[in-house]
Amino acid sequence: MNSLKDLIANNRRWAEQVTAEDPDFFRQLSMQQAPRYLWIGCSDSRVPATQIVDLPPGEIFVHRNVANVVVHTDLNALSTIQFSVDVLKVEHILVVGHYGCGGVGAALNEDRLGLIDNWLRHVGDVKQKHRSALAKLADFPAKHDRLCELNVIEQVRHVSQTTIVRDAWERGQKLTVHGWIYGLKDGHITDLGIDVPGNDALVDAYVGAIERLTGERPEA
Ligand code: CO
Fold first, then answer.
1. In what order do the strands lie in the sheet with 189-196?
2. R_g (Cα) of the chain, nearest Å
3. Is 42 a catalytic site residue?
4. Which of 85, 133, 172, 211 has the smallest number of Cβ neighbours within 10 A?
């Protein structure tokens, strides 16, 4: 286990390495950020955004919370989306879930963990919405994986339905919302095949992704 002093020492060593490779790196980055991506992911310590896609600081604007949930009244998520879309003009919003998500597992199992149960109730809603598809799966691990995937797709839909994203599309801004999932066991990201480049594409993208995943056609 690292002490806090170790963390500061690590930081200095890292900054020196980066500067050795590119003496201008921090000076350039300190003047402006121009990320092309907004990452909406889980807070899980094993899913660090820039590291798993091997990008340096400055490339990804990040919002993380437990179980990568986008709730339409969450001022924190909405502010992050609004700033990144309206001000930074990101071109892609990546909703990135992960297999083995503890938050999704707790929602699936209806665990009582405390205050967080209220937050995870949103994942419980996803579970309830897709209960017939989940019921077809044999065991808890299979249902857990599927709910992690379904949760990503539902959150892609939520992002696409925000006034921020809809307004950006309406004024012709180039912006696509995507759904990915990360495997803790092999470090691989899988594209869940939902890409939403505009309001008109949302229903087909959503229905298609759910149908491919579950074999069931959801209500749009
Ligand atoms: Co998680």
1. 60-65, 37-42, 92-98, 176-182, 189-196
2. 19
3. yes
4. 172
* 13 carries an active-site annotation: no
Centroid of ligand 1 to alpha carbon of 136 (angstroms):
23
Q: What is the per-residue pLDDT for 1?
A: 65
Q: Out of 63, 101, 158, 178, pick the active-site residue.
A: 101
- pLDDT tens digits, one per residue of 163-208: 999 999 999 999 999 999 999 999 999 999 999 999 999 999 999 9
Measure 96 CA to ligand 1 centroid, in angstroms: 10
Model pTM score: 0.96
Q: Collect the ranges in the chain with pLDDT lower than 70.
A: 1
The one catalytic residue among 13, 46, 72, 188: 46
Contact between 48 and 104 (Cβ < 8 Å)? no
> 60: which strand partners?
37
CB 140 within 8 A of CB 108: yes
Q: How far is the CA of 111 from the centre of ligand 1 (A)?
A: 15
Q: Which residues have CB under 8 Å from 72's CB, separation 6+?
A: 78, 158, 161, 162
Instruction: Say if strands 37-42 and 92-98 run parallel, antiparallel, or are unpaired.
Output: parallel
CA of 42 to the centre of ligand 1 (A): 5
